[in-house]
Amino acid sequence: MKYTPRLDFVVVRKDEPKEQSQGGILLPDSAKDERVPGTVLEIGPGRLSEQGTMILVDDLEVGDRVIFNKFTAYELDEKERLYLLRGNEITCKVND
Asked: Which residues, 6 or more positions from 64, have their beta carbon under 8 angstroms from its beta carbon?
């Protein structure tokens, strides 16, 4: 299914959780969801402010890797790991 976000919403695919740390330690489920990394798939066109100016999600592009809080996001598709959230709810971009 294809999702097209409205307003300043963003569709993000959550990355696969890592089963072990870089040092080889197996991670429990509680440690896997501390930071939720993902990839931006779609960005909405923006929203109008009270003054009538368009507010865009201009600091993100499709394909950007980001960190977000899954508790503020709407789960669109559990199988595909797709989430919908506002652009300002994305905590940070990952610069590799």
From this structure: 39, 40, 93, 94
pLDDT tens digits, one per residue of 51-94? 999 888 888 999 999 999 888 899 999 899 999 999 989 989 99
Q: How do residues 11-27 score in pLDDT, each as one tens digit? A: 999 987 665 545 666 66
The Cα 57–Cα 47 span in angstroms is: 9
Domain parsing of the chain, residue ranges: 9-16+26-93
In this structure, which CATH number among 2.170.270.10, 2.60.120.200, 2.30.33.40, 3.40.190.10 belongs to the domain 9-16+26-93?
2.30.33.40
Q: How far is CA 56 from the centre of its chain?
A: 16
d(Cα 55, Cα 7) in Å, to the nearest integer?
A: 9
Q: Can you give the pTM of this predicted structure?
A: 0.78
Provide the token pair at 61: 């592009």
